[in-house]
Predict the structure.
Amino acid sequence: MTLLKNQYPDPSTFIAYSHAAAGHEGVRSDPTGAILIKPCTAAEVAFYQSAADHPQFQAYMPTFMGTLAPNENQETASAVIPAPLTPSGVKNGTAAAWVPSGGKKLNTGLSIVLENVTAGFKKPNVIDLKLGARLWNDDAPEAKRRKLDESSNVTTSGSLGFRVAGMKVYRPEGKGKPEDDIEEHVEIEEDGYLSYDKYYGRGLAAENVHVAFEKLFGGEEALKKSSQARSVAKGLARDVRNLAEVLEKTESRMYSASILMVYEADEEAIEAALEEEKRRGAMRRANPGQEDGKIKDGEEDEEQDDDDEEEEEEDEEQRPKVCDMRLIDFAHAQWTPGQGPDTNALQGVRAVLKILEQLTEEHNI
């Protein structure tokens, strides 16, 4: 979805966002669920703005649509596109500093408007994977560094370069909480979801973190018996592999960023999405010169190209989705030309990929 000029969301209609697996409080969405409004820092806005210069990386970010800032009366919000910020978050000569929140709602007076990655899914299963063994940026105070290092050292952040920050898994009617889940870290929600909080992920070790991924896909038995679950795992492994290749070519640093993975948990909806994928794959193989039924020969006039692009965007929005994967949370991210790839984040991405590949290999995908 793209917000056109002067077509901003109406803040009076915002509702609480219900599919967040982790992160700060205060995330909202518009009534359609197509966009998210998330409290943020100026540095995060700057990173989204400057991502246009890094299109391969940008392809793995939620679409940036603008920002919202409060009006003078502080009771309503107005949509704004801020003045350009530098990637380090510098505006009007003042550098943006670390803003500790303790996981609570950020109170910066600024919100970012983003594509909702879970939109288009009937029953989205979601996992948030916080990347990096080092979780603090250079501007973090010493006390914050020590606290984050302690958290990393006793979790899979330190051993694998990532940890499960949260997870929401849909359980069909009649299926309750798995017996091996610890009650204080897993909540049964009214809409049929199991919500795994951040302490669930902190209790996992390198030896058993794969269990969280099995739960995400419906359990070990589902991976053995369900072609749907196996197809999802294979698709997400492919996406993470492609992401790793992009990060290897990108000079950036992002601390406390996450991989967000989503897939369709409704059985009928995912079956329809998988069938659509097969149909489109067969079409591409049968017609190498076509994409989505359109000839890409460069002979169409500009007006026809515009019409085709609009039709393709509409088709993309309506098409059933099997799964999706994005990088999120860039409050402590910046581009670092000349410093090489982000080995801290890459360690976690590669560890996630290894787990997904092991799951698919074990179950003969």
